[in-house]
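Batch job 17 of 40 flagged for manual review because the log was empty.
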Amino acid sequence: MATVTHIDIARARRSRRVLFIGNPTRYKEVSHWAMVKQWMVVHGLEPVRKMDGPALCAIVTEDVLDGIGSPQDALTVQHAREQGIPVISVHDSTQIWQATARVRASIARAGGGAHSSPHHQGA
C-alpha cells in the first residue's frame, strides 16, 4: 500500500476531477447518474472514469457499494479509499454537495459570472 501524504490529500481536495465508478443498471440509477454528471459539468467539475491523478471524490453505483460490481470497480474503490478519496453513493446528494463545496466555491470566485453573486443587480 502506497503512503498518502498531506500534500496528496491537499491536491485531491483542490482537484476538479470527480471519479465515477461502476455502470448503473436500474432505470432510476441510470437517470440519477446522468443528472449528477451533468450537475458536475455545470459547476465546473470534471467527471472522469479512470483514476489517473488526484480526484476530489468518487461517485459509485449501489452495486459497487454492495460489492457486486466488477473486480476492476472493486480495485478502483479500494485504491480511491487508500488515497483518502471519499467514496459516495450516486444517490447521496448531501454528501456529494458537501464533498464538492470548497472547490465549487473556489471555481465561482475565480470565474465570476452568475454563480458569484446571490443577488440580482436589477434596474
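Reviewer: the log was empty due to a logging misconfiguration, but the result itself is present. Confidence is low (pLDDT under 50) at residues 5-12, 112-123. Unflagging and moving on to job 18.
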